């Protein structure tokens, strides 16, 4: 175990861990990297595309998580450099919009591979490392609230994220007590492509959330920091939803009542 310093700060914080974040070069992944680095952890990010020099607070390894051999090389490299892996954040994922009626089998397979198979490949390799460590480790999968409701033109993504819920619970059962496995599921998330994601009036979409704003990368990172901390060492197989209270049901927009309860 080389160059690893662990400092106990309080019941919910431990710094100096080795943290691997997949899909960590941009977007939500970049925010997760920054949050764990700020907490004092040694962060390693991976992704298919190398980020611009000086834009990432972590060491970076190119890796397509859909390829088991690339994943094996990634985890071996992290262990060679840092001696261990304490936390894995399975963040790599995403999907294009495609109607189910015309979506090609190839595209469906690629979306499921990125959002379900990839997290399993990385978790499996990292679990081997964590099981051999005296204090085990923590795996956090990044899900989505689409796993709980139907969503148009993203059927493969919905199916994969729903599968990730079941996978998380199964791995938590199999890999305890050494390794804890949990799921963080964001709702509507502020992204770099706000209008492309939410249309020409994202502010109107924000108002449908009880908290009246989109989730940020910092909101999701706070949930991950909590679930990775020793203060919640009994929590495994759980899903923490970060959605600002959910979304108003569509039918509410069709029903308008005055103060007396009469339909207008």
Give an account of the 3D structure.
With 264 residues, the chain is an alpha/beta fold. It is built from 7 helices and 9 strands. The chain has helices spanning 27-38, 68-82, 105-131, 155-175, 194-198, 202-206, 217-227; strands spanning 7-10, 13-15, 18-22, 42-47, 59-62, 87-90, 137-142, 179-186, 239-242. The strands form 2 sheets. A 7-stranded parallel beta sheet has the order 5-4-3-6-7-8-9, with helices on both faces. Strands 1-2 form a two-stranded antiparallel sheet. The longest helix has 27 residues, at 105-131. The radius of gyration is 19 Å and the shape is globular.
Extract low-pLDDT stretches: 1-14
What would you call the shape? globular
Distance between the ends: 70 Å
Which structural class best describes the helix and strand composition?
A: alpha/beta
* Count of runs of 4 or more consecutive helical residues: 7
Number of strands: 9
Overall mean confidence score, pLDDT: 88
Order of helices and strands: EEEHEEHEHEHEHHHE
Task: Note the topology.
Blueprint (H helix, E strand, L loop, with lengths): L6 E4 L2 E3 L2 E5 L4 H12 L3 E6 L11 E4 L5 H15 L4 E4 L14 H27 L5 E6 L12 H21 L3 E8 L7 H5 L3 H5 L10 H11 L11 E4 L22
Helix pairs in contact: 1-7, 2-3, 3-4
């Amino acid at each position: 175990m080389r160059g690893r310093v662990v400092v106990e700060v309080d019941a919910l914080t431990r710094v100096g861990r080795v943290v691997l974040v997949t899909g960590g070069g941009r977007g939500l992944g970049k925010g997760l990297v920054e949050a764990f680095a700020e907490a004092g952890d040694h962060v390693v990010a991976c992704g298919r595309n190398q980020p611009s020099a000086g834009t990432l607070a972590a060491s970076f390894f190119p890796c397509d998580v859909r390829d088991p051999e690339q994943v094996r090389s990634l985890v071996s490299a992290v262990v060679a450099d840092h001696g261990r892996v304490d936390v894995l954040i399975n963040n790599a994922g995403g999907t294009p919009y495609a109607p189910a009626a015309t979506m090609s089998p190839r595209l469906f397979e690629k979306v499921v591979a990125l959002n379900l198979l990839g997290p399993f490949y990385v978790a499996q390799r990292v679990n081997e490392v964590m099981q051999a460590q005296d204090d085990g480790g923590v795996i956090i999968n990044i899900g989505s609230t689409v796993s709980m409701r139907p969503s148009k033109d993203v059927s493969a993504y919905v199916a994969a994220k729903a599968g990730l819920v079941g996978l998380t619970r199964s791995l938590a059962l199999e890999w305890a007590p050494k390794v804890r496995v949990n799921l963080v599921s964001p709702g509507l998330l502020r992204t770099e492509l706000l209008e492309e994601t939410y249309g020409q009036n994202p502010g109107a979409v924000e108002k449908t959330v009880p908290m009246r704003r989109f989730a940020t990368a910092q909101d999701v990172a706070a949930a991950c920091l909590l679930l990775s901390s020793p203060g919640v060492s009994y929590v495994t197989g759980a899903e923490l939803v970060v959605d600002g209270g959910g979304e108003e049901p569509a039918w509410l927009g069709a029903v308008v009542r005055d103060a007396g309860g009469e339909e207008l």
